[in-house]
Amino acid sequence: MTTTNHQFRLAARPVGMPKREDWSYTEEPVREPGEGELLVKVLYLSLDPAMRGWMNEGKSYIPPVGIGEVMRAGAVGRVIASKHPGFAVGDHVSGSFGVQEYALSNGKGVTKVDTSFAALPVYLGTLGMPGMTAYFGLLDIGKPQPGNTVVVSGAAGAVGTVVGQIAKLKGCRVVGIAGGADKCRYIVDELGFDAAIDYKSEDVKKALRTHCPNGIDVYFDNVGGDILDAALTQLAMRARIIICGAISQYNNTTPVKGPSNYLALLVNRASMTGMVVFDYAARYGEAAREMAGWMAAGKLKSREDIVEGLQTFPDTLLKLFKGENTGKLVLKVANE
Amino acid sequence: MTTTNHQFRLAARPVGMPKREDWSYTEEPVREPGEGELLVKVLYLSLDPAMRGWMNEGKSYIPPVGIGEVMRAGAVGRVIASKHPGFAVGDHVSGSFGVQEYALSNGKGVTKVDTSFAALPVYLGTLGMPGMTAYFGLLDIGKPQPGNTVVVSGAAGAVGTVVGQIAKLKGCRVVGIAGGADKCRYIVDELGFDAAIDYKSEDVKKALRTHCPNGIDVYFDNVGGDILDAALTQLAMRARIIICGAISQYNNTTPVKGPSNYLALLVNRASMTGMVVFDYAARYGEAAREMAGWMAAGKLKSREDIVEGLQTFPDTLLKLFKGENTGKLVLKVANE
Fold this sequence. Notes:
The structure is a homodimer.
Chain A: E1 4-10, E2 23-29, E3 38-46, H1 50-54, E4 75-82, E5 92-95, E6 102-105, E7 111-112, H2 129-142, E8 149-153, H3 158-169, E9 173-178, H4 181-190, E10 195-198, H5 204-211, E11 216-221, H6 225-232, E12 235-243, H7 264-267, E13 271-274, H8 284-296, E14 304-308, H9 313-321, E15 328-332
Parallel strand pairs in A: 8-9, 8-11, 9-10, 11-12, 12-13, 14-15
Antiparallel strand pairs in A: 1-2, 3-4, 3-6, 3-15, 4-5, 5-7
Helix pairs in contact in A: 2-3, 2-8
InterPro entries (chains A, B): ADH-like_C, ADH_N_2, ER, GroES-like_sf, MDR_fam, NAD(P)-bd_dom_sf
Protein name (chains A, B): NADP-dependent oxidoreductase
Keywords (chains A, B): Oxidoreductase
């Protein structure tokens, strides 16, 4: 009996927002694992803003996805066949399995996950890349001190929700910037942020003056554009800005909007530092243990926004860029 | 006998390039120093790109010069009367004496300088604020390691010439960006830079690829604008950018051009940090001693571009923004 694998492959490099025609939906038979390989049934796919960058040509922190290749994506699934000594049938695993139903792997970059501790999708969010990004970006680069004011944009997203909660755990005042009243309510009422700014209905610059009277000590930026520029107007002395992403700019058809107010770095002796989570791979275990501890103690909440159906992938991905997700956007591909 | 003091006062906040009408030229009698005061005859004035910023309204690292106030300027001069225990008639001193012929001071921020070691104008350049800026910006923020590639813009200016020479002393490969063949020749042939890029006749991005094949480890930015953006395209991993100034943007009548390529910080895990030299005041002595040692050993050359006559101040200042000076621009106000 042959199993069929369905896949989304990159058909064209998008101009602006990715369109349905930028993808091809393909099928092919699933091959049995060879020696040293394992076969994973993909259950949940991670949809991340960074995916938009991987679709572009050119030098970045990771090679672009080639035209005709299965789209790169983090995922969790179950091992259904294995000739790899490290993995057995039935193991739940996390890895870069791609936008498809089945993935063959040599085990590199694949880690087992414990579904008795947390549901599978959590391993794509708070205990996955977004959680690691938040943890290392905030703590290693932001170096928040008790009493500091920490501002995070994309605050209701997979990274932002974790950044804000960790900052609270570290004794900071936390202000989140998010789009819409629901997200703002969520981060304040459910996650315990001190304040939220709704960039869709508020003047962000003015609101930052109100909510950060002593200036921003740490700004964790996921969005770029006008919001980064607004944050630059309210820096405290020696502020640290973490450049984690710039979702407002990823679908631009015009050049990226550079931060006009960057000379605020000079005025405030502040710094702006880029981060890529992969650099911290050797320390993921340490972070996961600490965050799992916070979760077990009820101090760190995880939320996933789960959409069903591999076929919805092209549209579901766009939810990220339209700001339609709260928490980690996950695509459910199959049941166990 | 009453001495008359001539002064340039800020008459209006300039829009774009400062015009003659933005200044008023005033005269008033010189008052005798009171108890605890000294009277300085100003001999040389320091003309600095930062002065343009001080003419603007709004929050910065230092309050703006008020309308009607004598324009702020660093200067060196000779004490001609003193009721201050720390200063005697005949002492040569450096301080923020302003664009005028005579300055009364309470001694705060005034330091004696040794004309037996270096000529007075050198204390406005290599042994003054520009030298301090270069020293602390490069060493404290840039943290150059032997073998690193260091790029500096405004390379033939007061700060840039010192940055490049110190970087060479620290075992770095040094590439300077300057305007015009003469300046480029000067920094390579006279100061020992490894290469120069003439931004007026070369494609800076392309030239940086040629001269920095392993990427830029430290970029010391004095100019902002397109040159900052070009440097961002050629960063090495974990590059450090020092934001010291942005002379290309100071006379803009449109918003500052933010660096469109700032996401290169993310790709390269790089940082961009602002600096203001005043923060290092407590360590000026340390830097001055080390730099004086280098000068005495012939390892650090100082060059001043001296224009005569207080009355020329409005035009002479513009030389900075037109890129007409090589080395430290100094206005000679009077003979001893």
